[in-house]
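Hello,

Following up on my earlier ticket. Below are the two sequence lines again, exactly as submitted.
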Amino acid sequence: MSKQKENEQKSGNPVIWYGATGLLLLATIVVVFFAWQQNQSATEATMAPSAVEDGLPEYNVQNWIKGDPDSDYRLVTFSDFGCIHCARFHSVVEDFIEEYGDVISFEKRHYPINNNFHSRLAAVASVAAGKQGKFWEMTNLIYYNTDRWRTENPEQGFYGMAEFLELDMEQFQRDLYDEDITYNVVRAHLAAREFGINSTPTIYLNGEQIRAPQSPDQLYAIIFGEEPAPAE
Amino acid sequence: MKAKPLFFIILILAFIGFIDATYLTAIHYMDAPPGCGESGGCGEVAASEYSTMFGLPVALYGIFFYLAVMFLGLLWFDRGASFVPKVLPIISAPAVLFSAWLVYLMLFVIEAICWFCVGSATSSTLIFITSVALYLKTKA
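Thanks for your patience. The regenerated structure is below:
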């Protein structure tokens, strides 16, 4: 018995080791295939139809353009204030414009996912601030302070931001509950969804959907088809 | 041998953890376009700055950990390496602490839940508990 065990200890049982290695390889292949399928469906879920021929979906919300409104490069994004990827893309565009100047026109369109209360109110708040000339300032505040308005009383968060931007509070409060603005934001979401957009951020460059760039340089490469020249 | 069932439990947990971490690593490298959909789920956790460490996805470190646990387990089973019950708690304790840190980040910093990540944290915690039990059994 002891001799046999000693023998085993020396040589071990190859079946166990080959079996384990084989099982792990098989499991890896199955898992990677499963992950690939998941990834495919996630990629498909973010695909939206081209807007080159028929144009973008109907949009009746008052809007403000960042950059050069007459630029040949027209960037339109459908985004939700509560979506971190939208916030990230927004900061990429901000950095891009700071770095390369007003070479694009940038338009943010509201797409409150599932028409949820918080995102919808955030969209209306940005429009309300826009009516007092502070759309982009408000947009930044909303994107980067989600903890202030994804709460039970989101309007308190928006009031705080409006005060910070020194807006006319009475006007802001009226606009925050303006039925027309809210109605048009809801319609914009429905029209975009009917058009085939179902995730945020969905980004169009001159009507063709592009993948969300992760850096200003990546955005440059997508727009101009080449890497930016290294800084001197 | 009373310790055997514990050994099997550790192997199964490590295998589950391995599958879990492999999936997370694969998803990390496949890199679907980031976005939030109408059906919910934005992949906030996998896309956060905390999802990589020293340039590698944290899930990859998980794969190495689970492989090490399985290797040690088999070494003990096959060759009766008596140091294994002593080593397992020592290598799984940091894994538990690291998992706890990741779960903390997920719940309180990123404020989003990734169930595959929770799965990995659970299996590493259970591995630690079982390995302590195994250590106590073999010591007796």
